[in-house]
Amino acid sequence: MSTESTLRIVWIYPDLLSTYGDRGNLLILARRAALRGIGVETYEVRSDQPMPTTADIYLIGGGEDGPQALAAQRLIADGGLHRAVGQGAAVLAICAGYQLFGESFFAKGTRCAGLGLLDITSDRGETRAVGEVRGDIDPRLGLPPLTGFENHGGRTHLGPGVAPLARVTAGIGNDGRTEGAWAGKILGTYAHGPALARNPAIADLLLRWAIGADSLVPLDDTWADRLRSERLAAAGT
Ligand code: GLN
């Protein structure tokens, strides 16, 4: 697909799971890599195309129940994403994409099989979770607090094979207490919008995981930092 030194980023099924400006996450990752002098190739893989197995980072976005169920079926049938994860690829999975990484999820009133790549299951909630979501990220990841926007009907239960991405300080996330999950180099979150514009430190974590670096040259994140401070200072925090 490319030379060894080039970072390969795949955006999974933009034709099905791109309801919330998910392309922004791809652009931000590519830009933050390029600013560090890291060569990048990006691939937008539609649901009628085979999933490449050798990329370094995979992004999967949010979507409505119908496209979410279809995406899960196609990814299971394709099998390429399972191989990529088995080979150590880094993943950012958002909302519908996060749910379908689990064992099962609810869509259109039916329980659907997920990819089984995260030890989570999702059920239907009694209310829809819509609005700001904030949380203190697992200290082991060394990141500033998460802020984002959530819009989902499902609620997610975490098994022992994953850790919560964050402890909720505002909003609902998985269940009102925890938000998102991570295991190995897979990171799932209900924050979308796109999440990496508001949380550039998560973009850098994915880049570090992908290239195996402990740190990256810092960038000027004044605007993202200001937005985070503003959101954290807002009522309800
Ligand atoms: N369809 C899923 C739910 O409502 C995911 C929604 C989304 O991606 N925003 O829970």
TrEMBL record:
Occurrences of domain CobB/CobQ-like glutamine amidotransferase (ranges): 8-199
EC number: 6.3.5.13, 3.5.1.2
Pathway it works in: Cell wall biogenesis; peptidoglycan biosynthesis
InterPro entries linked to this entry: Class_I_gatase-like, CobQ_GATase1, GATase_3, Lipid_II_synth_GatD
Keyword vocabulary terms for this entry: Cell shape, Cell wall biogenesis/degradation, Glutamine amidotransferase, Hydrolase, Ligase, Peptidoglycan synthesis
GO terms, biological process: cell wall organization; cobalamin biosynthetic process; peptidoglycan biosynthetic process; regulation of cell shape
Residues of the active site: 95, 192
Annotated substrate binding sites: 128
MF (Gene Ontology): carbon-nitrogen ligase activity on lipid II; glutaminase activity
Record's catalysed reaction(s): L-glutamine + H2O = L-glutamate + NH4(+); beta-D-GlcNAc-(1->4)-Mur2Ac(oyl-L-Ala-gamma-D-Glu-L-Lys-D-Ala-D-Ala)-di-trans,octa-cis-undecaprenyl diphosphate + L-glutamine + ATP + H2O = beta-D-GlcNAc-(1->4)-Mur2Ac(oyl-L-Ala-D-isoglutaminyl-L-Lys-D-Ala-D-Ala)-di-trans,octa-cis-undecaprenyl diphosphate + L-glutamate + ADP + phosphate + H(+)
UniProt cross-references to PROSITE patterns, sorted A to Z: GATASE_COBBQ
Top-level division of the source organism's lineage: Bacteria
Subunit relationships: Forms a heterodimer with MurT.
HAMAP family to which the protein is assigned, alphabetical: Lipid_II_synth_GatD
UniProt similarity note: Belongs to the CobB/CobQ family. GatD subfamily.
Function: The lipid II isoglutaminyl synthase complex catalyzes the formation of alpha-D-isoglutamine in the cell wall lipid II stem peptide. The GatD subunit catalyzes the hydrolysis of glutamine to glutamate and ammonia. The resulting ammonia molecule is channeled to the active site of MurT.
Matching PANTHER family: DETHIOBIOTIN SYNTHETASE (PTHR21343), LIPID II ISOGLUTAMINYL SYNTHASE (GLUTAMINE-HYDROLYZING) SUBUNIT GATD (PTHR21343:SF9)
Name of the protein described by the UniProt record: Lipid II isoglutaminyl synthase (glutamine-hydrolyzing) subunit GatD
Phylogenetic lineage: Bacteria, Bacillati, Actinomycetota, Actinomycetes, Micromonosporales
Encoding gene, per UniProt annotation: gatD
